[in-house]
Design a protein that fits this description.
The structure holds two protein chains of two kinds.
Chain A lengths: L1 E8 L1 H7 L3 E7 L4 H12 L9 E4 L2 E3 L10 E5 L6
Parallel strand pairs in A: 1-5
Antiparallel strand pairs in A: 1-2, 3-4, 3-5
Chain B lengths: L1 E2 L1 H9 L5 E4 L3 H6 L8 E2 L14 E4 L5 H9 L4 E4 L2 H11 L7 H4 L5 H9 L2 E5 L5 H11 L3 E5 L24 H10 L6 E5 L8 H5 L4 E4 L4 H14 L3 E7 L2 E7 L7 H4 L10 H4 L4 H19 L8 E6 L4 E6 L3
Chain lengths: ~80, ~325
């Protein structure tokens, strides 16, 4: 069984990936850390050293959260410009 | 034409012959009588310009209905009282002319009581750059009583594209001084203090003490963490703003025990580059700094909902705004 999740990317992640949104098909026992690792794998060294926080369905996830079909995962790095 | 409460008081004190016509509803007249002034009562819908034989001041509750009526009728010797009965009674209470705030005092969330609260408040803005300039401008105009502007930097030619308090002829001058000078002419009710220094571990406590709200408009995470720790310790609301190219983030930290910056981004020592390193369109800090200023007055006045417990993510390319719930 697989699930579909929508990954929304912000600031450095969006830039490294070259797009705002990515649809992923994943195994159904996947958690958010897999999504983050997958994005880091795709983007290579562009995100090295960048802290990325995760929200699932617009709720901040302090720890990895198990995902279900249709979930939206947001990847949010800190920004410092002012 | 328009006159302020202060001007009307001078006219009446100087025995200028004027008629003050109160066009409010009966319940408004009863609840908020016009203090110390003889008025004629009239219904604006039945009032004809021909009925007004002498210099006339029309008074409604907030000075909006009467202003429109005068504009439509195109009358010369008829004046609208700016801010209406609300501004007049506020002026009579303590000789303070609140007419300039009439467009925000008309909002029930602010009102006269809220305006006085703003006038008694102290907001400290750390960083007088892309975010700090618009935030300081709007907070000064809104009638925040005291603004402390902290920045150790000087105006550079590359700042001018996005920091509209600065002009070409002030390049090389301390940012906090130039901003304080620019704001001094904007609203005499707002005292602006320039503090030409960078925030540090040594001076943080001294610089932020006593603030009702601290506005984070810095461009380093090191400075942000110092403010975060101090504001957490003292339970001072911290209005966070950060930028990356076309994107911005805003949140309110430490409000009534709400989350802190360290709860959301515990590890980071850097968030990429600064606006100087990565580039930014000037309007983006204008938008984010204005949202920070709005959150600041909402926090001071206890207006809800606000961005405490939420992280606002703004994207200036497609104009999306997302709110992440910070259940930390």
């Amino acid at each position: 069984m697989t699930i579909q999740v929508t990954v929304r990317c912000f600031s450095h992640v969006r830039e490294a990936l070259g797009k705002d949104v990515l649809n992923l098909e994943l195994e159904d026992d996947t958690d958010t850390s897999t999504v983050e690792n997958k994005i880091r794998e795709i983007t290579g060294e562009d995100l090295n050293g960048v802290e990325v926080k995760v929200a699932v369905n617009r709720k901040y996830a302090q720890k990895p959260v198990m995902l279900k079909d249709g979930d939206e995962v947001a990847l949010i790095p800190p920004v410092q410009g002012g | 034409m328009n006159i302020s409460a202060k001007e009307l008081a001078h006219w009446l004190d100087g025995s200028r012959k004027v008629a003050v016509v109160d066009v409010r509803r009966d319940d408004q007249r009863e609840r908020w009588p016009l203090a110390g002034i003889d008025t004629v009562e009239a219904d604006l819908e039945k009032l004809s310009p021909d009925d007004l034989k002498t210099t006339t001041i029309l008074v409604c509750q907030f000075g909006i209905i009467t202003q429109r009526w005068i504009e439509v009728e195109d009358l010369d010797e008829v004046y609208n009282l700016i801010g209406g009965a609300q501004a007049w009674n506020a002026y009579k209470a303590d000789r303070r002319d609140l007419s300039r705030y009439s467009r925000q005092m008309v909002l029930p969330e602010i009102g006269e009581e809220g305006q006085r609260k703003l006038l008694d408040s102290l907001v400290t803005i750390v960083g007088v750059g892309g975010l700090g300039c618009p935030a300081a401008q709007y907070l000064s105009a809104a009638g925040v009583g005291k603004l402390n502007l902290i920045d150790g930097d000087v105006v550079d030619i590359t700042n001018l594209q996005r920091q509209p308090l600065f002009r070409s002829d002030r390049i090389g001058d301390p940012k906090s001084d130039v901003a304080a000078e620019a704001l001094s002419g904007l609203n005499p009710d707002c005292v602006v203090e320039s503090i030409h220094t960078f925030i540090s571990e040594e001076n943080c406590q001294k610089l932020l003490a006593g603030s009702d709200v601290v506005l984070d408009a810095t461009d380093t995470i090191t400075a942000r963490r110092l403010m975060d720790e101090y504001c957490c310790w003292k339970s001072i609301p911290l209005i966070y703003g950060g930028l990356y190219k076309f994107e911005g983030q805003v949140s309110v930290f430490h409000l009534n025990g709400g989350p802190s910056y360290a709860d959301v981004f515990p590890e980071s020592v850097t968030g990429g580059g600064t606006c100087s390193d990565d580039g930014v369109p000037g309007m983006l800090p204008g938008i984010i700094g204005s949202i920070q200023a709005l959150e600041a007055i909402k926090v001071i006045l206890g207006i809800t909902p606000n961005l405490s417990g939420k992280l606002l993510l703004y994207n200036g390319l497609n104009h999306t705004m997302d709110q992440i719930e910070l259940n930390v």
